[in-house]
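__Record contents__

***
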Amino acid sequence: MWCACSLLAKSLKPRKPPHLDHLVQGHRPVAAPRRVFSIKSTLRNKLRARRKQLDNRRRLSLDGSINHFLTEFIAEHRPNTIAAFWRFDGEPDLRPALAAAAQQGVQLALPVVMQSPAGPSLLFRQWSEASEMKNNRYGIPEPLNSPEIPLPDINLLLMPLVGWDEFGQRLGMGAGFYDRTLQPFSQSDLPIRVGVAYQLQKVPRLPREPWDIRLHMLLSETGWLSFTS
């Protein structure tokens, strides 16, 4: 059984980001940097191509299942604030479930790419279907003038990904936006980090680098998978 209920109960309490070491504890040793980069790059190209091969009918069916499970989750656990993502590069479209959540009074947010001294990172701005949007440099729509929602105020963080494994490792697009943004929360239960992906994006094992942030949970067309004890 996944433990979203207890994690959400904690997320409703005010908290401050913990002071954490920047190394993420994992299930296996960190591989050599050059080898990891090569493996990740190869996997990323392979999995993106596999995802793009989905025809529209199959994609709509898979997205329908994902939205069904997400809508059930929201109705049962009633998170106050959900940060999601705008579909890009063949990622699942979560807008039906998010629209249902908004009708239930859930506050929604979308990521906005920001420049920082440490490199590009994310902040999250309030979003609704009426929000003014502007495409970022990748062509992804972002809320333009909406209020920022601090990460500690987000209960559920729905994260896009390219690949995932049964250990909770996530392979992103390679820019490190989420890993960099989540470093202060790398060993925290909150916000609940949920990867959203198709089963076809699963691989037996992903290599790990020190800055990689593990998922708490994974949502796919088959339902929920927890990586927490």
Remarks:
- The longest strand covers residues 107-114.
